[in-house]
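Need a sequence for this fold. Nothing fancy.
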């Protein structure tokens, strides 16, 4: 028997499966939504400066370097917005930069002083400390340079001192972004030996030699000094199997958390690392990605707020447990407004 539907067309003339039914109503769209962005997924990277007040960063409109007098209030605001953690990056005056980067483990340096101020304020927020020498290096590189070579093992010893100084000053998470070999195990040993067995290590396990970091180097003032590129330690953008080896090694060496960086151009790598290793994995929406969205929005070419939220949701869909983003306070405010 042939069933007819009201229009008189036979069943076979229509798609039985209509994907649009679930999309037809706001309530059904909510029911079938697979991923969600919440304030608990955001980490706010902050640039620190020695002098009081705020200094705008030209290539990152809306982002300021923060002085000691405004830092604690800004961090308190982030905590109120529900942001679980911040990441600190110092703008170091040129006269403090040296070939051996000694300022990196001076417990009176800008990062350590800022950590103590945040700790003293008792704010319910985690502090993530960058572990890398570039802000302190007169050569602009993440490692110590000898005869034009970025020397691995001597750099790792400097990183051990830096991480212990930052942990001594109240930092919660040490986040090596330098890409030296063996640094995760070495940091774990140094932190344990210094009595910091509870310190988390967030490894920038998969960090590419990317051209998306330009505005960051303006923000911390490391771009001017840098000669050459970082290709002998950061990864080739052409590779992704190598990313899995890097990330697996760092877990073996004692990393608690992994990161893939940059973000949007590397969602495939993020998804592989998260799925194949099953460890908490963060994405870093880096300065160049931020600048592109801001610039297009300022020209009226895209809706900045919508693109911001869509880009952050994309990280969640690809598997990121959290995202480092300069948009964190804005995104958190938007999420809370509903
Ligand atoms: C350096 C460091 C960089 C970033 C974070 N830590 C830049 C680099 O490797 O040159 C980039 C972050 C960004 O672009 O937002 N240790």
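Here you go.
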């Amino acid at each position: 028997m042939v069933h007819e539907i009201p229009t008189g067309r036979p069943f076979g003339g229509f798609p039985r499966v209509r994907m649009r039914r679930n999309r037809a109503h706001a309530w059904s769209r909510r029911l079938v939504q697979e991923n969600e962005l919440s304030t608990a997924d955001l980490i706010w990277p902050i640039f620190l400066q020695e002098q009081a007040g705020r200094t705008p960063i030209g290539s990152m409109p809306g982002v300021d370097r923060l002085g000691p007098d405004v830092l604690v209030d800004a961090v308190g605001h982030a905590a109120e917005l529900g942001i679980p953690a911040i990441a600190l990056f110092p703008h170091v005056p040129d006269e403090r930069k040296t070939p051996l980067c000694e300022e990196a483990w001076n417990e009176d340096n800008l990062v350590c002083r800022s950590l103590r101020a945040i700790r003293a304020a008792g704010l319910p927020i985690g502090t993530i400390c960058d572990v890398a020498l570039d802000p302190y290096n007169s050569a602009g590189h993440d490692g110590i340079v000898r005869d034009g070579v970025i020397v691995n093992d001597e750099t790792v010893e400097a990183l051990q001192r830096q991480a212990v100084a930052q942990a001594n000053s109240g930092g919660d998470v040490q986040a090596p972004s330098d890409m030296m070999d063996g640094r995760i195990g070495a940091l774990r040993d140094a932190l344990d030996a210094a009595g910091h067995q509870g310190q988390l290590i967030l490894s920038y396990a998969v960090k590419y030699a990317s051209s998306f970091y330009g505005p960051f180097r303006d923000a911390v003032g490391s771009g001017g000094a840098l000669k050459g590129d970082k290709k002998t330690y950061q990864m080739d953008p052409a590779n992704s199997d190598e990313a899995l080896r890097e990330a697996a090694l760092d877990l073996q060496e004692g990393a608690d958390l992994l990161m893939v960086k940059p973000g949007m151009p590397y969602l495939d790598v993020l998804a592989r690392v998260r799925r194949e290793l099953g460890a908490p994995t963060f994405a870093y929406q880096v300065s160049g990605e931020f600048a592109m969205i801001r610039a297009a929005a300022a020209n009226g070419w895209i809706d900045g707020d919508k693109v911001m939220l869509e880009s952050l949701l994309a990280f969640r869909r690809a598997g990121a447990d959290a995202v480092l983003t300069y948009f964190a306070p804005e995104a958190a405010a938007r999420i809370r407004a509903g």
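For context: Residues 97 and 137 are 5 Å apart (CA to CA).
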